[in-house]
Design brief:
The protein is an alpha/beta fold and about 450 residues long. Helix content is about 25%, strand content about 25%. The strands form 4 sheets. Strands 6-5-7-8-4-9-10-11-12 form a 9-stranded mixed beta sheet. A hairpin with a 5-residue loop joins strand 1 and strand 2. The radius of gyration is 26 Å and the shape is globular. The structure holds thymidine-5'-diphosphate and magnesium ion.
């Protein structure tokens, strides 16, 4: 057997070095090198924990697609984010900060699938802890087996006898294989364990859901390296102080990556939010300036979100700009557009922007409502509660058209808005007479000023 060799591995990107380095030359991160002992086993003579059958090459025309039937999880939001259910043999990674609700989500999904045998492998919690949680989520369910085990070779022995239909592993960072000597959670362990699980999933067609930890500073050997190996990466995010949780698809070999699932954390688990607009609009009776509603789309679903802005005189020399849920650079750009094209002296003002509900939105169509919220706060002029906006703002101050405008209009109409402000350039080829909601067309930032302020 080869002598164990000590090497240093970047816990961020996985590059190796024979000596410790402060800054990783590959990914540029600081202080990420950790000493690991890597034991080289000869993969041919060494006994692998799982040996797949001999591989056979197939012509693409001969491959049968009929087997690729998805397993529905009975959780609509989860299904949609996956692209329509779990694909047999797929490896799904769910990442998120500690305490966000990853274990809760997967246990809940597991307990809901009442005629499918699910094996929940836990390295983090005791049987009693899981039982307590299960009793809260779904006390009558009887399809789930819990295995408290972290040793990969032992897990494979259990798998051979239990033969589950779906496997959940909580979490990948706690697993370790005896092939490698470094501690659980290190990059080499994670990589080796994931590869073996991947082989198992592909050959038995059992889908595996992995939970992966991330921390704010990314110091744990993170799911980053896993992302290449797995089929689907889901990100579970949300503000811990808010009750909403968003499940976002970051990578998906079997579906769209722009999907979004919204949940609300309750004391009986995560409730699916099928109509997000109602949640994301705050229901203040008193009207305030600095608030504008936007008709946005994430994935395939339109919803209305509330943008709040506060503009006040800068107390110190350099004005502050801060935003929650919206890209700060984009905010700075919109402020520059307002300054240049609409003559606003915002350079002497602090600007704070917030998307209500603690969610993050990437849709450029919310630009228009961002500038309206800022102008509204700056001028202290109210924007009517029955108006919403949908448009992108360009550098020249033009209001650019956005995609799927009809869906946005329909959503606004459904929620009882009387006016929607959109780009003049969205007019082409659409029959707007069929809508009850009044549509206001604008061409440039100046038009907004004239109409609302
Ligand atoms: P958990 O799933 O343990 O988070 P993770 O696995 O991502 O670390 O969930 C943590 C939080 O969820 C915890 O702070 C309590 C809350 N929670 C509820 O509010 N209601 C519930 O029914 C459950 C099970 C958890
Ligand atoms: Mg957990």
């Amino acid at each position: 057997m080869a002598k164990p060799k000590s090497i240093f591995v970047c816990q961020q990107c996985g590059s190796k070095s024979s000596k410790w380095i402060g800054k990783c030359p590959a990914c540029g991160e600081w202080n990420t090198y950790v000493e690991e002992i890597e034991q080289k086993t000869n993969s041919r003579s060494g006994v692998s924990a799982f040996t797949p059958d001999k591989s056979v090459a197939h012509r693409i025309a001969d491959i049968d697609l009929a087997e690729e039937k998805r397993i529905s999880t009975l959780n609509n939001e989860f299904n949609r984010v996956l692209g329509g259910g779990l694909v047999p043999g797929s490896l799904v990674l769910i990442g998120g900060e500690p305490g966000i609700g990853k274990s809760t989500l997967l246990l809940q999904v597991a307990l809901a699938m009442n005629n499918i045998e699910v094996l929940y492998i836990t390295g983090e919690e005791s049987l009693q802890q899981i039982k307590m949680r299960a009793a809260r989520l779904n006390p009558d369910s009887d399809n789930c087996t819990i295995l408290p085990e972290t040793q990969l070779e032992t897990i494979f022995i259990h798998l051979a006898s239990i033969k589950p239909n779906i496997i959940i592993i909580d979490s990948i960072q706690t697993l370790h294989t005896e092939k490698i000597e470094s501690s659980p959670g290190s990059i080499s362990q994670i990589r080796e364990c994931t590869n073996q699980i991947l082989q198992y999933a592909k050959t038995t067609a059992v889908p595996v859901l992995l939970i992966g930890h991330i921390t704010k500073d990314g110091s744990i050997a993170g799911p980053k390296i896993l992302e290449h190996v797995v089929d689907t990466v889901l990100q579970f995010e949300g503000d811990q102080n808010h009750m909403y949780r968003i499940l976002r698809s970051v990578k998906n070999r079997y579906g769209s990556t722009s999907e979004l699932g919204i949940y609300e954390m309750q004391n009986t688990g995560l409730r699916e939010v099928s109509n997000p607009s109602e949640l994301l609009l705050s229901n203040f009776d008193v009207q305030l300036s600095g608030v504008a509603i936007s008709s946005a789309i994430e994935g395939i679903r339109p919803f209305l979100i509330e943008i709040q802005a506060l503009v006040s005189s800068a107390a110190y020399g350099t004005p502050q700009r801060s935003s929650t849920g919206f890209d700060l650079r984009r905010l700075n750009m919109l402020l520059a557009v307002l300054e240049k094209r609409a003559g606003f002296r915002l350079a002497t003002k602090d600007v704070f922007l917030n998307i209500a509900g603690g969610i993050k939105v990437n849709d450029p169509a919310i630009d228009l409502s961002v500038i309206c919220a800022i102008l509204s706060s700056n001028q202290d002029v109210l924007i009517g509660k029955d108006v919403c906006f949908s448009g992108e703002v360009g550098l020249a101050g033009e209001i650019r058209p956005v995609n799927r405008i009809e869906q946005r209009i329909k959503e606004a109409e459904k929620l009882g808005f009387s006016y929607i402000v959109i780009s003049e350039y969205n007019k082409k080829g659409i029959d707007f007479t069929k809508y009850k909601i009044k549509i206001v067309f604008v061409k440039k930032v100046g038009d907004i000023l004239k109409k609302f302020f």
